[in-house]
Amino acid sequence: MDITAEVIGYLAGIVTNISVFPHAYSVHKMSQNNEVDKINALPISLYIMQDVGCMFWVSYGILNQLYPIICASVLNMIPNTYIMFIICTTNCKNADNDVVVDDAPVDTVVVTASANNFLTE
Which of 12, 31, 56, 96 has minimal CB crowding within 10 Å? Predict the structure, then answer.
């Protein structure tokens, strides 16, 4: 393979992966701050499909000896797999803490607020 084409391939892989690592970092921060609702809103199917696609790209790269594709795909799988790990561990922790209360009170007071006064209904 021509050295110019290989350099372009590596640059493409780097630029593509730059977008994934900040997202993994923000998910890491959500995990540290225990922002369970935000983490649960992340679609795990997206990251599964991305990792499966990357596995195919790695296979394609190995079969054709295209090292830029192999490197870029493996690098892309690292943050995706980390995000999936965070989603799964957060869902497992959350499932352990879910408590169903059958004896919830029937009479509930709803409080609404406006700029001038407070009303209870």
Answer: 96
